[in-house]
Amino acid sequence: MGISAHKKVLIVEDEQDILQLVKHYLEREGFRPITAISGLDALKKVKEEKPDLVVLDLMLPEMDGLEVCKRLRSMPSTAMLPILMLTAKAEESDTIVGLELGADDYVTKPFSPKALVARVKALLRRIERAPADGPDLHLYGALTMNLARHEVSLGKHEVPLTAKEFGLLEHLLRHRGRVLTREVLLSAVWGYDYYGTTRTVDVHIRRLKQKLPLLEGAIVSVKSLGYKLRDLD
Fold it and tell me: How many whole angstroms separate alpha carbon 56 and alpha carbon 75?
């Protein structure tokens, strides 16, 4: 049974042709698509249907995609809900803002429906990845990552991370002390051959440092290459 079996995907898009196209391709792959045509409708559907992932257009009536993303990230019940944004090329600045607000990934219009479905699968695969035998723990100072529970805590306090933030932190912890290029991080964490901007990695690194202050001096930027998580003394 594949990653798509029984998974609900909420498509938030006010352009009917795009909405139906995405819905068709997701259905072909075994997903259960739900649709919304406005920001307010999207929030309502998330509450009622509890989707496994949201495909979210930026330009929406009533409430734009950035505000929808912000609201979803502010609620504990949806703080880790995977969000894939749909943007136009002219909206690059909005794309970065969307990533800052917590979107996990984005697809630029016009897009290949097959590529979009591949991104959806990659996002869900990161969450569904079966842990190794027994609890798989990563300890880094006061930080604890429990892969079996998909939890990260700092001291006694759990810190909610998005799917990509979680995957990025896991990869850094697994390869601490090594320099990881942005391209390597994109391939390992985003799960596909990525030909877009590497700023996606920079934004997610910045968000990790904001949520986990312990990492502020621990994740080092290596000029012209990428990032390294320092070994603890």
Answer: 17
The domain boundary, picked from 71, 99, 128, lies at 128
| 16/123 same-domain check | yes
Alpha carbon 31 to chain centroid distance? 18
| Domains held by the chain: number | 2
Q: Residue 62 pLDDT > 90, yes or no?
A: no
* 3 in a structural domain: no
Bridge pairing between strands 180-181 and 226-229: antiparallel
Write out pLDDT tens, residues 150-162: 889 999 899 999 8
- Range of the structural domain that residue 20 is part of: 8-128
End-to-end CA distance of the chain: 45
> Is the domain of 119 the same as that of 67?
yes
Task: Indicate if the pLDDT at residue 233 is higher than 80.
Answer: no
CA–CA distance, 200 with 213 (Å, rounded to integer): 20
pLDDT tens profile 152-190: 999 989 999 988 899 899 999 989 899 998 888 888 887
Cα–Cα distances in angstroms (integers) from residue 125 to residues 72, 176, 188, 193, 229, in the given order: 21, 23, 12, 15, 24
